[in-house]
Design brief:
The protein is mainly α. The protein has a domain of about 30 residues. It is rod-shaped.
Length: about 55
């Protein structure tokens, strides 16, 4: 019984660690996507300014 309980505790900790790792990975992906979106918005703005200056 004690070995089963210990194993259960280990798996719970592993699950928790995995959940934390997955959430951190998702947060990292989200921040990179947001940064990329901001970059593309700036690029669009710069292009629009360049086009208006040439136009």
């Amino acid at each position: 019984m004690t070995t089963v309980i210990k194993f259960d505790k280990l798996t719970q900790i592993e699950r928790l660690n995995r959940a934390i790792a997955i959430s951190q990975f998702i947060m990292l992906l989200m921040t990179t996507v947001i940064k990329f979106n901001k970059l593309t918005q700036v690029d669009r703005l710069e292009r629009a300014i360049a086009i208006s200056q040439f136009g």
